[in-house]
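ugh ok so i messed up the first submission bc i forgot one of the chains. this is the corrected input, ALL of the components this time, i swear. 620 residues overall. if the numbers dont match what u have on ur side tell me asap before i send this to the collaborators (the ones from the other lab, u know who)
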Amino acid sequence: MTPAAGGLRALFLAPAWLTMAGLFLLPIAVVLAYSFLTRGAYGGQDLPWTVESYIRMWDPLYLGILARSFLLAGAVTVLCVPLAFPLALFIARSGRHKLLWLNLVMLPFFTSLLVRTYAWMFLLRDTGLVNTLLLKLGVVAAPLPLLYNDGAVIVGLVYSYLPFMVLPIYATLERIDLALLEAAADLGERPWGVTRRVLLPLARPGILAGAVLVFIPSLGSYLTPDLLGGGKSILVGNVIQNQFTTARDWPFGAALAIGLMLLVLLLLRWWEARGGGELG
Amino acid sequence: MKRRTFFLGLAGLAGCTRQQKPRLNVYIWSEYIAPSTLETFAREFGVHLHHSIYESNEELLAKVFSGNSGWDVVFPSHYFLKPMRQQGLLAPLDAGRLPVLGNLAAELQHPAWDQSLDWGLPYMMGAAGVVHQQSVDAQAQSWDLLWREDMRGKVTMLDDPADTIGAALLKLGMPLNSTHPQALQAAKEALVAQKRLLRAYLNSEARQQLVAGELHASHLWTTTSLLAMDDSDALAYYYPREGFARYADCAVVLKESTRKHLAHEFLNFLLRPEIAAANAEESFTTTANEAARTLLPQELRDSAALYPDAATLARGQWFEAIPPDAQRLRDRIWTEVKAR
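and heres the new structure output, hopefully the right one now
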């Protein structure tokens, strides 16, 4: 590369670097700094510097909440795969309507998550659409308790993050050479065998990328557990949120946020090292 | 809370453009002021009045904490005056510019949290009690209703640590603002025992479910309860005999305001009886303005929920700012209850 080309390269990269530094690294640096400060009497933060917040984090209460958050996010991720895979396959094979289906998958993002979560509340309430229908059809005698439990939270999270699973799987399926599937069939493999032994292994990178994209936002979610869980269960996202609002303990909230971020980064490294994939 | 009002707020933001007229920025709870109040003030004083809304004291504090939020007048609850003052966020009120302070209810002329009204002008009062289906127990008068086994799956508590830990403390005969570790421990045990009976911890969302009959009883704010009762005759509301929580939202002038004179004009305007009455009617809330009460429609004026008698008020306890260490303990207890 000539010096002039290097200068040009730096020039064109500058906006990206500035955006990263200003909108990503700087806020994280502020959070990191807050996490080592003492909380102010009524919110905010004060000197002196301390690691107290990081010590408090090891309380079994918070570790238990973290474990529960991992389980819930894991359940959401696992449920997303069988829902997303057939849909992604269908879209990848849908020829000229591909764009339409892809747009439909992304359509929910045009509305705020808050509004969509409220819609789920109207569906799942005692007098909501689902229960009214079941009662009218005589399937149940009394409304089912569909809202305000972990099941509702999982349904809400699966609904929210399903597109993040569909899109990467679709991207890998689209690139698969159909001749490979035909060859497998010609060699005597039944359709189920073709799917299990050829299609799924080929789609693996997409599934793994989707798993990461679904798991991480589920782990940090706080709106859905609050609204669909009726405030009865608490996830790590809610604990962090409370520190910045009612508990007025910003440094502890910041420390929890940093701790969660480090944990997720470590997990990602481990995932990659295990051959989990072409995530970079 | 009512998030649809958020969109009204956005519309308000979009509507404000560069103008020559002096402006005043007012940040207030949702559905807490009559549109006519804002229009009349803007017209009478020839100002551009920009207003937006919030849903919690925490949200308000987060916005104004920086000291350059751009707001002139905001409406924190009375127990937020002390922390806001200590953070240097408030400008002292100039009583000389508020000549009709005498319009306020007697108990708000010299309140415990602000003896000579140096920092906040009481605007509306609120409280939290129990709203329930009369068919369940027409005689209910105690917090115990919300702990009854036969109410399983049909009760909600407020999703707010101060209110709900406070309710448990009151049920146990202890002070609302207790900072005592043993008292708080007992409150935690009561809340853990109650949790298996609860449908959820809900704030404003409880309203529709009460009207629909899905809920039998809820720990709820007076205004939200009255709105539910407006839609359903089956509901009744009471202030538990063991005691209940009270708060007063106050108009304050922020220290950062560069329009303190105009801000005082606005506060004084809010003290006018006919204006205060319009605001109380709009918001279904208890006005802090005694002179306005006589101007209210009879159903509001004579409401025992909005204007309880002296014997009931004697059971009320005002929220207080909780000191940091007790606040930390309360948060841990709240997290523990939620994690069960």
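quick check: The CA atoms of residues 185 and 333 of chain B lie 8 Å apart. that seems consistent at least. Chain B touches chain A through 40 residues (CB under 8 Å).
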